[in-house]
């Protein structure tokens, strides 16, 4: 993946076509998991474009609605923006597309936990890896 745009308006990532991410070798269609990874990454990194300082923000929830398969042998772009910020959660939305953002392959909404600059949970909590 490469960054195509990153500013306060959002983030655009490019996923080049590759045989390694094909889900159906007969049609050449990219596997949905590759698009999910693109959009999770895009939404997660878009938080950096929105926050005044870098914070670690792991995925809490991600929903993807697929509209149609991607065309084989063409790159896929992911666009994401943050639309709501609270003290604990950042809400994002975006689309995966190829030629035109107005003709999406998929729509996505995501929620990301704010861990702050230190990477610790609010209130000094613990995460699955033990004390923070």
TrEMBL record:
The keyword Hydrolase applies. Gene3D superfamilies: Hotdog Thioesterase. Coiled coil: none annotated. GO terms for cellular component: cytosol. InterPro entries: HotDog_dom_sf, PAAI_dom, Thioestr_dom. It holds the Pfam family 4HBT. One of its GO terms (molecular function) is 1,4-dihydroxy-2-naphthoyl-CoA thioesterase activity. Keywords: Hydrolase. Residues 28-103 form the Thioesterase domain. This is Uncharacterized domain 1-containing protein. It comes from Halopseudomonas salegens.
């Amino acid at each position: 993946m490469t960054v195509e745009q990153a500013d306060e308006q959002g983030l655009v990532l490019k996923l080049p076509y590759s045989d390694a991410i094909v889900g159906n070798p007969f049609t050449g269609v990219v596997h949905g998991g590759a698009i999910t990874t693109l959009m999770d990454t895009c939404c997660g990194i878009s938080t950096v474009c929105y926050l005044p300082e870098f914070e670690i923000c792991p995925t809490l929830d991600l929903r993807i609605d697929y509209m149609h398969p991607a065309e084989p042998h063409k790159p896929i772009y992911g666009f994401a923006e943050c639309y709501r910020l609270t003290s604990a959660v950042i809400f994002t939305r975006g689309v995966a597309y190829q030629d035109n953002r107005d003709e999406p392959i998929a729509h996505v909404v995501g929620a990301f936990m704010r861990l702050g600059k230190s990477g610790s949970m609010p209130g000094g909590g613990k995460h699955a890896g033990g004390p923070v």
